[in-house]
Amino acid sequence: MRFGLFGTGPWAHLAHAPALAAHPGVQFAGVWGRDPAKAAELAGRFGVRTYATTDELIADVDAVAIALPPDVQAPLALRAAQAGRHLLLDKPVALRTDEAEAIAAAVTERDLASVVFFTRRFAPEISAFVAEAAATGGWTEARVDHLGSIFEDGNPFGASPWRRERGGLWDVGPHALALVLPVLGAVTEVTGMAGDRDLTYLLLRHASGAISRLTLSVDAPAAAAREDAMFAGEAGVVPVPAAQWDPELALGRAIDQLISAAAGGPRPDCDVRFGADVTAVLVAAERAVREGTVVRPAF
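Structure (tokenized):
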């Protein structure tokens, strides 16, 4: 499958470009970036072409991988899907429900393959846990704590304007939702509260009747940083296993799923339809926190 890469930031360097270059089923065609000098540097590192325009890249490939802020990603993804290109997107798919829904509709209408890169969902330990937990059922609650700081020295994501503006809700919130939604079902109600340093606390009611609690931050004090999760119910209190954080390896598995789906294989669990559902919950959560109310996501 011939891939083009949109983006030249830290995630493109850490995951997308290395994984595309290394995958035996991929022909890495080239790179487009908002900064031509950075695009040339990344393309030169992997011996691929630099594209001058987004349309030129879309026209020259079978699939696009996008490593750009969500507000930049969404219109590019829609144009690529409308042109019949398979999609490998970053999370969140978009910052608006209508944009995410438009991408999902374009993918469905053209029978395209899509994957949204919820990193840890592509770790074998997490993938197996989610499948087993969903099959087990009987859960009454879940808790996900995902708190850290991207503003420490040496963290490349701290300079990201959209992460500074949107905080943990939109940056790590998608990862938490990607864990609870397939096990507890769709969110029917959400409420929440925000604290200092972008701390966000959400309560979600799911279609199954279960309630999940998410605590999120990308600006937590170092001593308060933690990442753990559990599900509780008829099967007891079950912790989510730890997983190796290897974005290049995880993205390789995402590419495997995309290529398989494009060839008629199973639809990936973390496809654009799932990504649009996550965006709907995040939009509802943002409103619930801002207005101090309970919001029903607009699926």
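The mean pLDDT is 96. The longest strand covers residues 139-147.
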